[in-house]
Amino acid sequence: MLTKRIIPCLDIKDGRTVKGVNFVNLRDAGDPVELATQYARQNADELVFLDISATEQQRKTLADLVLQVAAALDIPFTVGGGIRSVEDVSILLKNGADKVSINSAAVKRPELIDEVATHFGSQCLVVAIDAKQIDGQWKVHLVGGKVPTEIDLFDWAREVAARGAGEILFTSMDHDGTKNGFANEALAQLSETVNIPIIASGGAGTTQHFIDTFTHGKADAALAASVFHFGEIPIPDLKQELKQQQIAVRI
């Protein structure tokens, strides 16, 4: 049985880790290198680093900071934000990233998915999808959730998988930062729609929420930020509870 993964997420703005609610009202959560080191010690399975203002500011991901974080880690490390080309991916992988995450650029030019998968392999490509329910339909949003589209979440997930993505990181904007639980119905539908791993994001608040997303949501991994950054749920304790609930995790 494949183990379920616990993934802390570092949202980076101006070189600091930040966290908000529903993608707004950001507050400082600490130094990214210190937090990365802490999570590696706590036995996190992977780490995600998202330069959340890179796309909006039309600049590249902070490659030097990626290098510093990678030097502090011995667990897989995914980097996203402002990635628009094969060259961008190459720089980040050379600086120590194990995977890259693309979002807005993939929607604007879907061929980017094919290009990255062809050059570097599907195993290092995560396509992030930010979506929100509008009139009962899940619609994809771009630029850190600021720009709505008419693209259906599940249609886009199918295309992403067909073009060669290795994983999908799905963030429910409705649940982000609320600590009310993950969007498990949508997650379960995603897992039935595509045959690649789904990472759940948005809404973690309690240990039960992680249990629910692995069982009801059928997620392969669960990503969270504030509950880890502010010490509300220690990762070792979370993993012990998951193990007690017969959910396979790496202890």
How is the topology of this model organized?
Layout: E1 5-13, E2 16-21, E3 24-30, H1 32-41, E4 47-51, H2 63-71, E5 77-80, H3 86-94, E6 99-102, H4 104-108, H5 111-120, E7 125-134, E8 137-142, E9 147-152, H6 153-163, E10 167-172, H7 184-193, E11 198-201, H8 207-215, E12 221-224, H9 226-229, H10 235-244
Parallel strand pairs: 1-4, 1-12, 4-5, 5-6, 6-7, 7-10, 10-11, 11-12
Antiparallel strand pairs: 1-2, 2-3, 7-8, 8-9
Strand % is: 25-35%
Q: Gyration radius, to the nearest Å? A: 16 Å
Strand order of the largest sheet: 1-4-5-6-7-10-11-12
If helices are DSSP runs of H or I spanning 4 or more residues, what is the number of helices?
10
Order of helices and strands: EEEHEHEHEHHEEEHEHEHEHH
pLDDT < 50 runs, ≥5 residues:
21-25
- Output the structural class: alpha/beta
In helices, the fraction of residues equals: 25-40%
Mean pLDDT: 89
Largest sheet: 8 strands, parallel, barrel
Oligomer: single chain
Strand segment tally = 12
Shape: globular
Distance between the termini: 15 Å
